[in-house]
User: Fold this.
Amino acid sequence: MQNEQKNSRKMSSALILLPVIIVALSMQGCAHQEKTHYNLQAQAATKAEVQLPAAQPENPAPPPAPIIEKYALDRLKQMSDKLTSAKAFTYHSNSFVEMQAVTGQFLTFFTDVDVALQRPNKLRVDASGDMSNFQLFFDGAKVSAFDPEKNLHAVSDPLATIDEMLDFIMTKAQINFPSADFMYSDPYAVMTKNLTHAIVVGPSMVNGVPCEHFAYMEPGINWEIWIENGKNALPLRLAMTYKQVPNFPRFLVEFSDWNLTPKLGADTFLFKRPANAEKIEFGTYRAEQKTK
Assistant:
């Protein structure tokens, strides 16, 4: 499990938790490296004729000396504890991601997502936007993924916990998963695994809510987080810059409508398969698309 979480951090930090499953039932994504994430998204946005940029040569300049400010870690830990102490939570997110078109211009794609989580083994995701419409259900036993536009669904083998489910989705099913780091049983351990820098930027506001702005660096990614002031310590905004991709494309997501005491019925997490929906196996959807 620890090795799988390490791998999932590589991918989720590569597109840290893009709050959308980029390709419905597609099995390429965040489980490998930042470049793999980008490849998935490029293939997803075929209407915009997006293509994967060429790999960027390694920068010969030495990296800056590590800077770790304790308060930047303390607040990240407080945020993590706030989320893990909640038996359940819901939130809404909206995001944009930049991807390069065949002209070289970077295009901007937007996504909205609603998430409902109940520990230790229930999760639901509803995503819609420029990339795809998508639903994912984890009922405590199996993961069901559904693409309402193509009327396709897939179902996993039995899984026990949200951590195990996230590992499956990102490393085995290879689906980009929304805000995965925040959903693990220990977000702090996942988010700090590969840190080289952590600094306090200063006070800020996100949609009228006072917060603190922090910045972090990993080998292939620079990322920032805005955490609500005081004991609430909820994530309000997350931004990333991909250092291993030409022109350093960006990703940004804002979180709203946090509820740490929601009333969630059992049917929230149950997938009710439409009578005419076609069942496919995780990993087959993209292959079918390529043949059409």
The chain is about 25% helix and 35% strand. The longest helix spans residues 70-85. The chain has one domain: 2-272. The longest strand covers residues 88-100.
